[in-house]
Amino acid sequence: MSQDSGVTQGRHLLVVDDDDRIRDLLKEYLARSGYRVTTAPGGAAARRLMETLEFDLAVVDVMMPGEDGMSLTRWIREQRGATGSTPVLMLTARGEPEYRIEGLKLGADDYLAKPFEPEELLLRIGAILRRAQSRPVSSGALSLGRCSFDPDRGELTSGEEPVRLTEAEVALLRQLARTPHEPVDRLQLAQGTVDPSGRAVDVQVTRLRRKIEEDHKAPRYLQTVRGIGYRLAPD
Questions:
Q1: Is the domain of 49 the same as that of 99?
Q2: pLDDT digit string (tens) for 64-116?
Q3: How far is the C-alpha of 2 from the C-alpha of 167, rounded, in Å?
Q4: Alpha-carbon distance 3 to 205, whole Å?
């Protein structure tokens, strides 16, 4: 049950589950693994906590009476500042792909089906926190060979000339730019697109490669990570 102290040190987790037994077990297990843990029995209580406290990650059960985990995740992503950027790990007894896709579309960072091994929960939490920690506070412009992408402005230039991007292409590049050199899952990139299967993302990547790469058939900067998705690899 060892965990990287750099990941757990001072990290505050919110566990939201209507089942008292599961909530208490998760709190005990995560606390023994080095995390600070606060719990909530449902969506309304979680909202009140998040309006007054900052959390490094929320572990949210999907199937809850009243406000379910999907609705709570949607509310989190609608907030501004630290609350709106809080990573979310969804837990559910329903493991069908459509539920996972729906959660990712709403802005969840990961999805774990019950029953699960406690060690897997720890590994997924650690992976999410490392990705969040690697996101730069101020992204600045990223060098992509002859091109440069400014995530804050959503602008791509080639030399001194602006390169026209669609809103979907800007959104995709921004997502990849949050964690440069790290692979991002296709389904995560597909959140909010017309095709949650990821096919729309594949089309956008092909178009972006034609705008960015010297040779779009042998991409250097917008790379495919087999079995996962895509990675932005700036200079």
A1: yes
A2: 988 889 999 999 988 877 788 888 999 987 766 777 777 777 878 888 888 88
A3: 43
A4: 36
Which residue range forms the structural domain that includes residue 120?
Answer: 5-134
User: CA–CA distance from 48 to each of 41, 83, 89, 207, 234 (Å)?
Assistant: 12, 11, 19, 43, 40
Residues 81 and 122 in one domain: yes
Domains: count for the chain: 2
Which of 185, 193, 177, 168 minimizes the C-alpha distance to 232? Answer: 177
d(CA 193, CA 196): 6
Q: Is 147 exposed, middle or buried (0-12, 13-18, 19+ CB in 10 A)?
A: buried
Q: Are residues 153 and 125 in the same domain?
A: no
> Which pLDDT tens digit goes with each residue over 178-234?
888 988 888 888 876 667 778 888 988 999 999 999 999 999 999 999 988 999 999
pTM: 0.58
Q: What is the CATH number of the domain that holds 44?
A: 3.40.50.2300
For residue 52, give the DSSP letter.
H
100: Cβ–Cβ under 8 A, 6 or more apart, which residues?
Answer: 111, 187
Residues 70 and 151 in one domain: no
Residue 99 and residue 166 share a domain = no
Q: Are residues 74 and 10 both part of a single domain?
A: yes
* Residues 106 and 129 both lie in one domain: yes
For the cut 70, the answer to whether the pLDDT of residue 1 exceeds it is no
Rounded CA gap, 137 and 144, in Å? Answer: 20
Whole-number Cα distances in Å, 217 to 64, 106, 141, 211: 47, 33, 25, 12
